Amino acid sequence: CFGRRATANPEPLMSRTLDSQLSFADLELSRLGVHLDPVLQGIDAFLGQHSDLVEQVRLDLERGLKNPTTGRSGITPSQTLRSLTLMRVKNWDYRELRERINDGYTLRGFTQFDSHLVPKHDAFNRAFNRLTPATLQAINQAVVQAAVQLGLEDGKKLRVDTTVVETNIHYPTDGTLLWDSVRTITRLVEDLHDKLPNGVQGFTNRTRSARRRMQQIQRMTAQQRQQQQEPKYRELLRITGQVVQSARQVVERTKGIGGIDVLAGLVIDQLRREITSYCDLADRVIDQTRRRVLLGEQVPSEQKVYSIFEPHTDLIKRGKVLKPVEFGHKVFLAESAQGLITDYRVLKGNPADSDHVEASLERHQQTFQHPPEWYAGDRGFYSADNVQRCRDAEVGEVCIPQRGGKKTAEQEALERSRAFKKAQRFRVGIEGRISVLFRGRGMKRCRAKGRERFEMLVGAAVLANNLMRIAQLLEEQKPKRRRSAG
Questions:
Q1: pLDDT per residue over 176-187, tens digit each?
Q2: If both were cysteines, with which of 42, 182, 194, 311 could 210 make a disulfide (CB 3.0 to 4.6 Å apart)?
Q3: What is the pTM of this model?
Q4: Which of 106, 134, 36 shows the shortest CA–CA distance to 344?
Q5: CB 123 within 8 A of CB 339
């Protein structure tokens, strides 16, 4: 009998979750003494000592699988976490991540692919997409707790701020949103036409006429808008309404079509769901355009759609002179004196900064089991109630400058004191941390689609920052070698 030798407890042939073994080639290459740079080496050592972080990733990768120990070999949980960290540390896209790992021996060792085949870039995308924002939130909290246990962080100082992470959309106008609706619905209906045996009947392609009206509106001068804008918008609204109505009729007529295999049926059902979803968004765009342009109504920002591709996008106004309006999500960040981001939240809408003081104090208390000695924020976090809450929580130095109004003599003396000014200089450090997250960790603009992927980007950027800071702090703790006298 030829084949594998039988054993009493045979292991599965292929596994999605079990780590691969080192080959003889890996052991030989490790003898060469080629090492990672100190930061990645520190991250590698830290992750190797905290296997509980990998276990949370394993649960996400196994979610929905009937038998995770059989089937094709996938990216292991450890490889997933390390590859995601490397991607954000280096600010690479999926293709560059795969190419750099495939071409570099040290990066193969860091991501634990070693001499094994490195999967294609889309495999990394699928693995990362199985992770959830809640998992990254839990991993970040575990990393902070590990830093506390190692004596790297004590949570005595806390500085807070908010920033805006942009979604990947163009500047929204009513005309361009209507045009986006027409071209997207038409493209999906054409895809459905190609998939069906007899095609789609009764749908007219109106993209040329819609694009022409959109361009005419965009090219109008301020004087022309007063006389010509409303008629052109009426034409564009009529065209968009006709496309939406025809697309819904196509969806109804294609229900229960036979003569197709199971796989093709799944693709067709997915296209029908996408068409219905974009038709619903187009209805909202038509409604807000009619109310704003034709009726002259002031539509509340929370009722508007700023992108049919990223409908979760919020409009944020922060009083910035160079950027008065931003499109994305507001993100709350809390940083310690050691540069660790101990708390982060992706917010809904455009809440005032002063709304987050009490909640951030409670989360800090849960993480460190004591209030911070310093709580530093900018003027946006000020309110008399927030100052009182900090004092009730036994915060030593409440460093939040008063916003507006006439200051009392006591407040004037407080803001002129040396301790207050020192705490304000400490507060400014979080601006630099936000800049590092934007430029170095890729958090400036989220190019992934959907609210969940948006939160994943923020969580991965924070995780990469914390792991890098821990690696640097551990490196600083090592005793420096003295040079020999001879």
A1: 999 999 999 999
A2: 182
A3: 0.89
A4: 134
A5: no
The token duo for 353 is 């900064």
Alpha-carbon distances of 229 from 216, 239, 258, 298, rounded to whole Å: 9, 16, 47, 17
Average pLDDT on 309-327 reads: 92
In angstroms, the CA 152 to CA 360 distance is 21
In sequence order, which residues have a C-beta less than 8 Å from that of residue 260 and are 6 or more positions away?
Answer: 196, 197, 268
Q: Dig out the tokens for 250 from the structure.
A: 């196509």
Q: How many Å apart are CA 219 and CA 173, to the nearest integer? A: 13
Q: What per-residue string of b and e applies to 52-64 under the rule 16 or more CB within 10 Å gives b?
A: ebbebbbebbeee
Least confidently predicted of 280-289, 319-328, 427-436, 448-457 = 319-328
The closest alpha carbon to 336, from 246, 191, 462, belongs to 462
Scored b (16 or more CB within 10 A) or e, 27-51 reads eebeeeeeebeebbbbbbebbeebe
Residue 26 contacts residue 108 (beta carbons within 8 Å): no
Is the distance from CB of 215 to CB of 192 less than 8 angstroms? no
pLDDT digit string, tens, across residues 339-371: 999 999 999 999 999 999 999 999 999 999 999
Q: Which of 311, 338, 198, 183 is nearest to 260 (CA)?
A: 198
Evaluate whether 363 touches 155 at the Cβ level (below 8 Å).
Answer: no
Tokens found for residue 226: 């007063």
The first and second tokens of residue 6, run together, are 């039988």
Task: Write the pLDDT tens digit of every residue in 144-187.
Answer: 999 999 999 999 999 999 999 999 999 999 999 999 999 999 99
